[in-house]
Each structure stands twice: as structure tokens, then as C-alpha cells.
TrEMBL record:
Residues 364-553 form the Tail specific protease domain. Residues 300-329 have a biased composition (Low complexity). Residues 159-281 form the CPAF-like PDZ domain. GO terms for molecular function: serine-type peptidase activity. Keywords: Signal. Residues 1-21 form the signal peptide. Gene3D superfamilies: 2-enoyl-CoA Hydratase, Chain A, domain 1. Residues 296-329 are annotated as: Disordered. This is Uncharacterized protein. Pfam families: PDZ_CPAF_rel, Peptidase_S41. It comes from Penicillium steckii. InterPro entries: ClpP/crotonase-like_dom_sf, PDZ_CPAF-rel, S41A_metabolite_peptidase, Tail-specific_protease. The keyword Ribosomal protein does not apply.
Amino acid sequence: MRLILHVSLTIVAGLLVTSQATSVFPLASNSTDACTDIYNHMLEYSIHNYSASLKVSGELAYKCARSFPFESKRAVAFVEEVRKYVNLQSTLEILESPPADYPMPATDILGGLDDIQIKASASHYSNHYDFDLDLQRLFASAFDGHLSFTLCSTSFAAFLSDASLVSISSNGIALPEVYVKDDAYLKYTDEKVPVSKVVAINGVDIEEYLPNLTKTASSQDWDSLYNQAFYSDSLSINTNGLPGYSPGLVGQPGFWWPGAYQILQFENGTIRKYETYVNFQKFPWKNTREVYESGCLQDSPSSSTTASATSSTVPSESSSAAISSTPSATSLPAPNFYPKPFNKHSANKILGIFPDSGILKDTAVLIVPTFKVEQGPDIEQFAQVARDLLNKAAERKKQNLIIDLSGNGGGTVEAGKNLFKMIFPDQEVYSANRFRTSELTDIMTQISLVDSAENAKFYDYEWRTKVTPDQKEHFESLEEWYGPYNVFGINSSASMAENLTLVASELPMSGFGDQKLDPSKPAFAPEDIIMITDGYCASTCTIFARLMKMNGVRSIAFGGRPRNGPMQALGGVKGSQVLEVKVFSNRDLTYYAEKMEMNSTLFTIVQKDLWKRLAPPKLDEFSYKVSAGSVNQFNAFSSENNQLPLQFVYEAAECRRFYTYDNYIYQNSTWSSAYDAMFNGGECVPGSTNAPGSLFDARASSG
Ligand SMILES: *[C@@H]1O[C@H](CO)[C@@H](O)[C@H](O)[C@H]1NC(C)=O
Ligand SMILES: *[C@@H]1O[C@H](CO)[C@@H](O)[C@H](O)[C@H]1NC(C)=O
Ligand SMILES: *[C@@H]1O[C@H](CO)[C@@H](O)[C@H](O)[C@H]1NC(C)=O
Ligand SMILES: *[C@@H]1O[C@H](CO)[C@@H](O)[C@H](O)[C@H]1NC(C)=O
Ligand SMILES: *[C@@H]1O[C@H](CO)[C@@H](O)[C@H](O)[C@H]1NC(C)=O
Ligand SMILES: *[C@@H]1O[C@H](CO)[C@@H](O)[C@H](O)[C@H]1NC(C)=O
Ligand SMILES: *[C@@H]1O[C@H](CO)[C@@H](O)[C@H](O)[C@H]1NC(C)=O
Ligand SMILES: *[C@@H]1O[C@H](CO)[C@@H](O)[C@H](O)[C@H]1NC(C)=O
């Protein structure tokens, strides 16, 4: 339904509580080059050292980006380079015809690349931005947080506005309504102030606008996507270690141009206009050509200064066996959005809390906003916080454990497996994974064979050290391991796992290798543990949560679209390993290229040619600058079905609640609501229990 905006109503600009500087750069310009206008604007304000000088009109930045020249030949080559990585994406065939349970539309990624390449060669694009945006639309159509490329023109400007919305239910069960966050504050703290819900944006009914907006995000579940429209402290802690910086996709649409304004229409007839802007930290480019050359071209003389917008979009998650080491992050205070923690990671990557009052007084809470930890002290500290909390909980005879995974987009797989092992020391760490085989994986497999198994053990296409999902067996032959097996139309490897004993020589892994099993006994029974999510849980978060579910631990999902019925707790990608272009090109490509070179006589001309033709470019070898990119390398499978990748299995949470205002503001009220629903006979949203794919699936029990 489209609502007609009554233009006669007062359009109130600059009425925003959150907006400090009301004057975004005026659009009237003297030059024909929008990028020059930005340059002049920045220059003018930096001379005056005006504090708001970083804010630039979104429309001007959009115009500047859309004036980047389009070079057909270079673009055609670029698509070919991207395709070499996309060939390693594990879900290509199944995305073309997904099973009925998969809630998202089908998509043909390779076919889409063909189309874009044809359009590029026919110079269908009038500017480089439109070309990049077509690629972004294609990647987004996979709804896979592991499939993404940061392209030069779409990363030039991150669009922002001061609009931040929340979706609030009066009691957690009644259907929620959309409010501007600051209005909600007034509504729930001062009854006398009249506030009204949001009914439309830019003339489009809010319940049509938000799903349309959020389908650019990367979850594979409509309720999880819907939640990303809104303010979230959890998501902010995931990204920044602190609450307060995640306004939701309405206020932070990233490169998805929302129009020069988002005009909010309230139920009481009021209209409020939010201007789209961009924050630039610096802008040393005098015209479009300079911006384009420095931002997009590899060999540009000024390429050391890349365009940098200060605000990023919603973070994408990653999960890789991080066998790389960077220094641990600095120490941050505990987020005020939680009660005082018992112990915590210095950068708030994990926190333990023993709430001392009310319904939660016999409960321990483990908050895990991320698994993004680096090898070394960082991941060790992460493990130590969990270990101490669990051991102390047993000592204090706590009854229940709540694990809050809100906003958790994943990270290092081993950190998730180790956390599971600390909670269930007596259970196996089951892990079934397959990659998509192709001519490129054929040749990488052959190359790694010239090295010793010991040297090659951490490379993905080395078979001798991989083990079966239960860790019990190794593979008898290359053929047994590699296949290819036809798995839902995808040529795939056998289902396999990393040998955790080998992993334990590099990373904390309780009870493996030389590492002591600690805790040695489970502190809680499965029925006394619950997991809380906002549906965002992706990647390593889903690996951890799946292991927990396999052992009978229930989940409760919060939020989602304003309708009754179930919601998935794990709305993000369930792929078990991301291939990051940066890591792959620094480490793996270098390795394979060196082995090929050094042991040249061992390879045939055909193999050498194949490698030359198929090896993807390194990050700095693309025809355009790419600052990051990744594909989903491994599919993951449950222990009951080693054919259907988990991304395509619908799994409702055991219960769902909507957010109340308190739930948004005090995270311990979310824990109380969850406790009440899961341990205390409290209510779940109608139709949200015994739902498909949950532990108590009514379909299964009725036969
Ligand atoms: C346009 O020119 C006028 C008069 O020369 C000047 O005051 C104004 O700052 C210029 N605007 C821009 C965006 O350069
Ligand atoms: C600009 O203003 C800030 C804040 O008042 C001040 O700290 C900074 O030194 C100023 N910079 C220049 C170049 O004057
Ligand atoms: C209508 O709702 C808006 C948004 O909550 C509020 O700011 C405004 O004060 C309300 N106006 C009246 C007349 O109640
Ligand atoms: C949905 O979003 C697209 C851009 O992603 C936009 O072109 C279209 O107008 C939107 N439709 C509605 C109904 O908002
Ligand atoms: C949340 O924690 C605060 C102390 O930090 C406490 O005052 C409040 O009662 C708690 N709320 C709930 C619902 O547990
Ligand atoms: C895993 O690695 C360890 C250490 O090398 C080895 O002893 C063990 O046999 C391996 N597991 C399997 C199932 O091959
Ligand atoms: C799958 O593998 C088989 C056997 O190697 C091969 O013949 C077939 O062409 C492959 N299919 C695809 C789609 O790559
Ligand atoms: C491959 O090259 C390396 C380095 O020169 C060498 O140590 C190794 O023995 C070679 N492998 C074979 C199988 O020749």
C-alpha cells in the first residue's frame, strides 16, 4: 500500500533531537563537477576549522560517485577476476534452485556475472558506480554474509541520516510498532508527551519500506533482516565493543542510496524529514577524475590516499581458522547497557555476569557478542573469561545459564568450538564440512601434495591431515576425501573436519592435544541452559549454537516482523568457513604459487596452464581496487543430514518474544523476559513454539 504524502503538512527539517549540525552542505553549486563541490566545501570549512565540516550532503556525494567514468574493457576483466573467487563459493548450484524451506528467492550468481559482463562489454553503464552497484545487488541476492566484495565506488561514500528507529511491543507478546528511538524514550519515560508511531517513509507504508530496505543486508531470514532496520546496542558492541553506535539501516543505509531525504510520516499526521549525508574524514581530490583514480585504480600515483568515509555499514562476519596474529585490542570499559560484569574480555568480546537480584538471582549469564578474536593473547583471554565464569557458576551452585548471542556475526571458528567444549566437556565436537570442487580446487589439491603433510596441514586443500566429522578417522585416499560427490547438485568434497588435536597446537581447545580439559565436568544440564538471539547470529555463532542445540539446548529469538508465528534464532549464514580474499591472497595463493614454481618439474604443462588460467588475483592485482572480499568456502551439515547444507535448513527457535522498550534499553530485562518464557512458564509469541526445525518440532512428534 502506498500512502499519499500531504505536502501541505508542515515539513519540519532540523527538528531532530539527535541532530547537532542542521546545515548539511547546500546543494546549490557553482561547478559542474559534484566532486569539486565537495572539495571546495571541505576546504572552506577546514580553513574555518568548523567542527561540522566533515558532513557532506548525501545527494552531492551520490552525484560525485555516479560521475566516476566507466571503462568497458577494464570492467569486463574485473568481472572475470571476481568470477575466479566466486567459483570457490560453496552454494552456487543450490542457490539456483533452493529447497522449499529456504525462505529467500533463488538466484543465479554465475549467470548474473555473465549478464553484468555482457552489459559491461556493451558499455551499457554510464558510470562506474552503476556497474559496481549491479555487482553489489547480485552479491546481496545470495543473502550470504560470507559473499561480499568491497568495491571502490560503492565504498566511496557511506550514506547516513539521523533517523534511528525501534520496534516495540507493549508486553513482549503484543505485535510491535515502529517508533523513532527518541520518541520511544519520551513515550516510556514521560506519559504526558504525545508521541506517535511511524506509518510511512517516503510515502511507502512502513511495513513495505522496511523489508524492502533490509533485503540489502546479508541475513537469510526475513525476521533477522527486519531487526537490522532498528537501533541495536548488541550489534554496536559486536562492532565497537561499546553500545550506542548502531542506529539500524534507516540511519545507516551504507551504499544503498535512500534518496536525498527519508521523510517519516507519523500516525498523528506529523511529518519529519531526515536529510541523507556522508561524513568525510578528508577529501584531497580536486575533481572526479582524481577521486576515481585514487579510489579505483591500482597504479595511480596518488593511490596511497584512498577515499575514506568514516562510517561503515552493518559489519559483515567472518569465520576462519585465524592462523595469523595481530596484537590484542585495547581495554574498553564494560558497556553500561549491562549490569556490572563478574569478569570480561578487555575489548568486551565476552562478558560473564551473575545478576544479583530478581528473577535472575540463581542464573549465570555469558554474553558473547562476537567470536572475532585473534590468535595469541586475545583468543586465550576469551577462553579464560568463559572458563572462569563456568567454574565460578558451579562453585556458586547457579541453577541456570543464559548465553546471550545477540548481534553475534561470528569470528574464529575454533573460539566457538572451544566455548562449546567448556560448556559440555563430555561431548564430542561434531563438525561436518564440504567445499565445492572445481578445476581450481583440483589443481590446488595437486599442488599441496608436493609438500609434506606436516607443512601443508593448515591449507584447506591438503587431505592427509583432515578427519571425519566425529574426529575419529582419517581418510584412506585422496579420492575418498576429494570425491567429487554430487551433493544437491554441487560437486563436493567428502564431509570432513579439521583435526582438533592439530588445531590445539596453535589455539586454545580444551581437552585436545596437551591441553587439560577445563572445566572437566559440565556446570549445567542442557535443559538449564538457553541461548538468546536477535536472529543476527551468523557463521561461527551458528557453529557454536548448532553444537549446543545438538545437545538439547533451547533458543529464544527476539524481535522480527510484526506478525505472530515462529522466528529463526540463527538468521545469518551457516557456512562454516569464509575464504577472505586478503588472507587467501597473502597466504594460500603465495603458498601454491611458490610450490608450483619450486617443484616445477613435477607438474605437466597442462597443470601449469590450468593454474595460470584459474588462479585468482591477489587483492592488489584486481583491475580495480578492492579493499576486501570473501566467499563462503565450506558448507556445514547437521549430524542427521550430510546432504543438505545448513544454510538451506529452516530452524525455528523454541520460542519467540518481541522487544519491549525496557528490553532495548536494559539488556538484563531481555534476560529476565527470556528466563520467564523459558524456565518459568511465561509466554511466547502465539504460534512460535513447537515450530518447524525446532527441538520440539510438532511435525516430528506427530509422525
Ligand atoms: C559559489 O560562488 C559564490 C559566489 O562566488 C560563493 O560565495 C559560494 O561559496 C560558491 N559556492 C560553492 C559551493 O563553491
Ligand atoms: C580545530 O578545532 C579543534 C577543536 O576546537 C582544535 O582542537 C584544533 O586544534 C583546531 N585545528 C586547527 C588546525 O586549528
Ligand atoms: C505527533 O507525533 C510526533 C512523533 O512522535 C510527535 O513528535 C508530535 O509531537 C506529535 N504531535 C502531536 C500534535 O501530538
Ligand atoms: C525498494 O528498494 C529499491 C532499491 O533497493 C527501490 O528502487 C524501490 O523503489 C523500493 N520499493 C519500495 C516499495 O520502497
Ligand atoms: C537490571 O540491572 C539493574 C542493575 O544494574 C537492576 O537495578 C535492575 O533491577 C535489573 N533489572 C532486571 C529486570 O533484572
Ligand atoms: C589427529 O592428529 C593427531 C596428532 O597428529 C594424531 O595423533 C591423530 O591420529 C589424528 N587423528 C586422526 C583421526 O587421524
Ligand atoms: C562434477 O564432477 C564430475 C566428475 O569429476 C564431472 O564430470 C562434472 O563435469 C562435474 N560437474 C560440474 C557441474 O562441474
Ligand atoms: C619441492 O620443492 C621444495 C623446495 O625446493 C623441496 O624441498 C621439496 O623436496 C620438493 N618436493 C618434491 C616432491 O620434489
